[in-house]
Design brief:
Elements (H helix, E strand, L loop, with lengths): L1 H15 L4 H8 L3 E6 L2 E6 L2 H10 L1 H11 L5 E6 L5 H4 L38 H12 L8 E5 L5 H15 L5 E5 H13 L3 H9 L3 E5 L8 H15 L4 E6 L11 H7 L3 E5 L4 H4 L2
Parallel strand pairs: 2-3, 4-7, 4-8, 5-6, 6-7
Antiparallel strand pairs: 1-2
Helix pairs in contact: 1-4, 6-7, 8-9
Length: 284
């Protein structure tokens, strides 16, 4: 096993010279070596989503790095780790599940729309990737794709997916604290806290969460003080491996009046879009 670990370490070192740091940490660092037999390196990932993403987006980098280290005839096989049972994962202390905070579980205070679930979301070619990403985040919040940034036009299902994440997480991990807000609500809460000299309580309400879901983040454009506060909120959550999911009508790079340091952080994890539905999806 030491041999395959050392082999994979050399492959990772090679990959790190080919991709940027956020991409490396999000997609390549979590990969685990399994075996090296008959010139085939087998590695494992945490989810089918990660496997499909690596095979579709980073296959050339992976295979090229393997061949740089092992030789031109080397082959690569990606498998998915055996999943633990949902019953064991539903306990907050289960291995691999997010750690619960001391603030207790969130209940109906989020006002999630019970009609907006994964079961009621109509999946089509234009939203399949975003759907898979949100489901992966819901099953293991804070472990990968953090932050998850979803963008697309009005009425394409971004809000639906955020509500679905929140309800799914609370069903799977009842002890976790989940907060869903619009960016406008964040702004209004911030202004209220400033006017009433209650900024500490405001910070606690946003930073003492295991999962923070923020809809329409573009609403913070040109609002410098609110951007500054959200920057610190983002850092506080991300720095402790708590999940952040954001939605917007545009990609991070197109939010031109948002601070560069925020835009760059929004791209640390996974950015995925939702396209208008095709005819088959519209008539489903």
């Amino acid at each position: 096993m030491d041999d395959v670990n050392n082999l994979w370490k050399n492959v990772l070192d090679n990959i790190s010279n080919s991709v940027n740091t956020p991409t490396f940490k999000t997609w390549f660092e979590p990969i685990k070596p399994v075996s090296f037999k008959k010139n085939t390196l087998t590695v494992s990932v945490k989810s089918t989503f990660a496997k499909e993403w690596l095979e579709s987006r980073h296959h050339d980098v992976l295979l090229g790095s393997c061949r740089d280290v092992i030789g031109a005839s080397a082959k690569l096989k990606i498998i998915v780790e055996a999943q633990t049972s949902r019953s064991s994962n539903s306990e907050g202390s289960a291995e691999g599940s997010p750690a619960a905070t001391k603030y207790g579980g969130a209940s109906l205070t989020n006002n999630f729309n019970t009609k907006y679930t994964f079961d009621t979301f109509i999946v089509g070619s234009g939203n399949r990737f975003a759907y898979s990403a949100t489901l992966a985040v819901s099953e293991k919040p804070g472990n990968a794709y953090n932050p998850l940034f979803i963008y697309g036009g009005v009425g394409l299902g971004k809000t639906h997916l955020l509500h679905a994440i929140g309800q799914y997480v609370l069903n799977l991990y009842p002890s976790l604290v989940v907060k869903y807000v619009s960016a406008e609500k964040f702004l209004n809460d911030f202004i209220y806290a400033l006017r009433h000299k209650n900024i500490i309580e405001f910070k606690e309400s946003y930073r003492n969460n295991d999962v923070l879901l923020v809809d329409d983040i573009q609403f913070l454009e040109e609002k410098e003080a609110s951007q500054e506060e959200f920057f610190h909120t983002f850092n506080a959550l991300h720095g402790t491996n708590r999940q952040i999911v954001l939605s917007s009508d545009r990609s991070p790079r197109d939010l031109s009046t948002l601070e560069e340091r925020l835009r760059s952080r929004f791209e640390w994890g996974l950015v995925t879009d939702i396209q208008p539905p095709d005819l088959e999806t519209r008539t489903a």
